[in-house]
Structures are given as C-alpha cells and as structure tokens.
Design a protein that fits this description.
- The protein is mainly α.
- The chain folds into 3 domains: 67 residues, no CATH class; 280 residues, Rhodopsin 7-helix transmembrane proteins (Rhopdopsin 7-helix transmembrane proteins, Up-down Bundle); 56 residues, no CATH class.
- It is built from 15 helices and 4 strands.
- The strands form 2 sheets. Strands 1-2 form a two-stranded antiparallel sheet. A two-stranded antiparallel sheet has the order 3-4.
- Helix 7 packs antiparallel against helix 8 and helix 8 packs antiparallel against helix 9.
- The radius of gyration is 29 Å and the shape is globular.
- GO terms for molecular function: tachykinin receptor activity.
- InterPro entries: GPCR_Rhodpsn (IPR000276), GPCR_Rhodpsn_7TM (IPR017452), Neurokn_rcpt (IPR001681), NK3_rcpt (IPR001013).
- It is a multi-pass membrane protein.
- Keywords: Cell membrane, Disulfide bond, G-protein coupled receptor, Glycoprotein, Lipoprotein, Membrane, Palmitate, Receptor, Transducer, Transmembrane, Transmembrane helix.
Length: 464
C-alpha cells in the first residue's frame, strides 16, 4: 500500500547480511517487498546465529559475526549497472516532474485571486500531498529497494513508514471532496456552496484522519543493525497477521472506499450533464455553463481514473506476495516490485499535466511560469484568463444569478416603461416545452445583462 513500509522493499537480496546459503535464502524470502517482518526475522535469526531475547519478544539480539567469508554468498537480486541506471533515471523523472509540476499548480492557485475557488483549494491540498510524497518518499524507497540497506537513521525510518499513508490519504480524499462538491453544485445548485472557512476545516479534518490512520506505522517502526547492514521495518506486536490485516484496512480506506464514492457521484453527475437537456433552461448562457461544467467534471474523472490505474498493480502485488510467499523467491520479483512501485509513484506527476492540457486557466498559468523559455509565448488572452475579476454577487448558482439579473434589468430599465411592462408580460408567458432556445424577445430584453454575464472572464460557476 501507500505506506511503503521499508520492510517490504528489501529487494537487494542477501549480500553482506550473514553466513552461508541459508542466510541468502532467508533474505531472498523476505527480499521481495511484501513479506511481513514477523515471517522472516526468525529465518534471519536462525540463519545467522542470532538469538531472540526472551525478555523482549520479537526483538533480536545479535551474536558475533559468522566466520563465513562474505565472498561465498550468492545474490539472485543483484542487478547490472545499466539496469540500475535506467531505473534511477525513471524514478528521477517522476520526482522532478511531480515536485516542480505540483509546486507550480500551488503557485497558480494561490497567486491569482480568480483561481481561489472551492475546487481549487482541494487541488492545492492534492498538489501539496503529491509533491511531498515525491520529494520525501520516492527516492528513499527506491534506494532502499536497490541496496537493502537503510542509510537514513531511526527518525527518518519512522517518518518514512508514517508519511506515505498520510499523503495518499490526503490526496484521494481531496479528490473525493471535489467529487462531492461537484455533485452538490450540479445536482442541487440552489444550495449554498462551501465557504472558504468550511473548505479549510474539511482539509484540516482530512489531514487529522490521515495522521490517525498512519500513526501505527510510526509507533511500531524499528531500525536494526544486522551483521553487514542496517534495516528499517515495522514490527507489529502480533506479527504478520496483524500486519496484513492493517494494510488490507488501509487499502480499503485509501483506495476502494473513496473510489466507490467518486464512482457513484461522477456517474450521477455524468448522467445529469451528458444525459440530456434540462427543461426550461435552454438559453445560450445555459449551454455555455453546461460546457464549462462538463469540462471540469471530465478533467476530474481523468484525474481519478489515472490514480486508480496507477495504484492498482501495487495493491495487487502486495496482496499476492503476502498470501503466496513463494513468489518472493521468484527471479524477476524485484523488477516487478520496482515497476509497480514506479507506476504508483508516477501518479504524483500526472495531475499537473492533466490540468495544463484540459483547463485553459491552468494552461495560462503554466505559460506564465515558463515564460522565460524562448519557445513559450504568453498572449494577452492568457493574461486575462488569470487576471480578470470573477463576478460573484451571491453564493447561489450561476443559473439562478443569470435569471435574477435579467429580471432586475427589465424592471429598472429607465428607457421605456411601456416596453418594460410588455417585456415582463412576455416573460410571464409560459414557455413552449418543445422550444430548444430562448425566444428572441427574451434575449433582446436582457441583452445588456447577457452580454456581461456570458463573458468568459466573469463566469460564476466555471471552476477551476
């Protein structure tokens, strides 16, 4: 799972860990990133003449180093230099794109008032958690998976086992909050939207729940100095069964359940937006708003589907290697782990690319961020996309606002009271149910307001 407990990542085999072929096999059994420490620590103890402390169950006391020369050990997980170089390049690309891309997303939203919407506040939280995961977790786990040696100390071992669950929880529940917000805005548009304060409370609650879920990983994290290496792992009090149960719960909470919620909400929203026209609201402005909402929902569906695809192989890998321990001795299991882990971590770098490709405001923001490049040109239209002021007189839906503004324009029209009265009578006349567009007279009576509201720089509900 996203916790990436370091004990799962020991894919470098048996080099330098102890004595003889038995130790090599023992480490190979635990080397393939999925075997709980309780299952293989006894093997280590037996193979390298370690003795378990009777006063402290589960902790191992080291005995003198075995006399077997280290050169006689074999390691089925040793990789050639060219393969290590390719994996290093692949992981470095993920880290660079994820960190810089998500930081630019955060800058675009926080530095431009027009971008500070409810949806975008959740996108800031999503970008922060993705950038943090890439910066603090990806390379460290990759190095540990390659070398089977923990270089980073006891405190970072706790952080390394604790933070990834926290970050992934924050990421996927930010997506879930966006899905619920979009659902409320489209299915029940007359209800007030979340305020900035309420949005911050929701984000804070997400992080608190994430900390609580990940806390056991921090509590039971251990570092152990073995003959020839230092290990970092999570030592559960009740052993491998408790380990497996915890991570199944984590998979349900940070993968299955939120994806189920988002699947239901986006299905209902999709049926509403793409299933047909809403009777009575068929003027040009309505169609513009419908297209804008479809674009936002489409973008977020792609984000969610990308996350689900990227993390699915990693979850399958964990479950299979935890149930079928013999898979951990398979010759190519290290490559399978590195590939599934890379795909899971790559989920942190796709979102900025998706925003840039599918949203014109984010695209304008990325152009501004990279305007120093000779082949990037920022047009006046791009500047207006980020600088124009959003028209937001009420918290009601944009559809309601347009109707309200039209009526105000008609009632207070000082030019001709007779025309105003006739316009009001025409507005009160029931609309033909078979009509597919606003009448010309209605459009003319509200021409001033419609031209203002329909400006691409003053839309009320086009988010982000």
């Amino acid at each position: 799972m996203a916790s990436l407990p370091a004990a799962w990542n020991w894919t470098a085999g048996a080099e330098g860990a102890g004595a003889g072929a038995n130790l090599s096999e023992a480490l190979a059994a635990g080397a393939a990133a999925g075997v709980a420490e309780a299952a293989w620590l006894p093997l280590l103890a037996q193979a390298s003449n370690l003795s378990a402390s009777s006063s402290t169950p589960g902790l191992l006391a080291t005995s003198p180093e075995p006399s077997q020369p280290r050169a006689n050990l074999t390691n089925q997980f040793v990789q050639p230099s060219w393969r290590i170089a390719l994996w290093s390049l692949a992981y470095s690309v993920v880290v660079a794109v994820a960190v810089f891309g998500n930081l630019i997303v955060i800058w675009i939203i926080l530095a431009h008032k027009r971008m500070r919407t409810v949806t975008n506040y959740f996108l800031v939280n999503l970008a922060f958690s993705d950038a943090s995961m890439a910066a603090f977790n990806t390379l460290v786990n990759f190095i540990y998976a390659l070398h089977s040696e923990w270089y980073f100390g006891a405190n970072y071992c706790r952080f390394q086992n604790f933070f990834p669950i926290t970050a992934v929880f924050a990421s996927i529940y930010s997506m879930t909050a966006i899905a619920v917000d979009r659902y409320m805005a489209i299915i029940d548009p007359l209800k007030p939207r979340l305020s900035a304060t309420a949005t911050k409370i929701v984000i804070g609650s997400i992080w608190i729940l994430a900390f609580l879920l990940a806390f056991p990983q921090c509590l039971y994290s251990k570092t152990k100095v073995m003959p020839g290496r230092t290990l970092c792992y999570v030592q559960w009090p009740d052993g491998s069964k408790q380990h497996f149960t915890y991570h199944v719960i984590v998979i349900i909470l940070v993968y299955c359940f939120p994806l189920l919620v988002m699947g239901i909400t986006y299905t209902i929203v999709g049926i509403t937006l793409w299933g047909g026209e809403i009777p009575g609201d068929t003027c040009d402005k309505y169609h513009e708003q419908l297209k804008a909402k479809r674009k936002v929902v489409k973008m977020m569906i792609i984000v969610v589907v990308t996350f689900a695809i990227c993390w699915l192989p990693y979850h399958i890998y964990f479950i299979l290697t935890a149930i079928y321990l013999e898979l951990n001795r398979w010759k190519y299991i290290q490559q399978v782990y590195l590939a599934s882990f890379w795909l899971a971590m790559s989920s942190t770098m796709y979102n900025p690319i998706i925003y840039c490709c599918l949203n014109k405001r984010f695209r304008a923001g990325f152009k501004r961020a990279f305007r120093w490049c000779p082949f990037i040109e920022v047009s006046s239209y791009d500047e207006l996309e980020l600088k124009a002021t959003r028209f937001h007189p009420t918290r009601q839906s944009s559809l309601y606002t347009v109707t309200r503004m039209e009526s105000v324009t008609v009632v207070f029209d000082p030019s001709d009271s007779v025309n105003a009265k006739s316009s009001q009578k025409k507005r009160a006349t029931p609309r033909d149910p078979s009509s597919n567009s606003c009448s010309r007279r209605n459009s003319k009576s509200a021409s001033t307001t419609s031209s203002f509201i329909s400006s691409p720089y003053t839309s009320v509900d086009e988010c982000p």
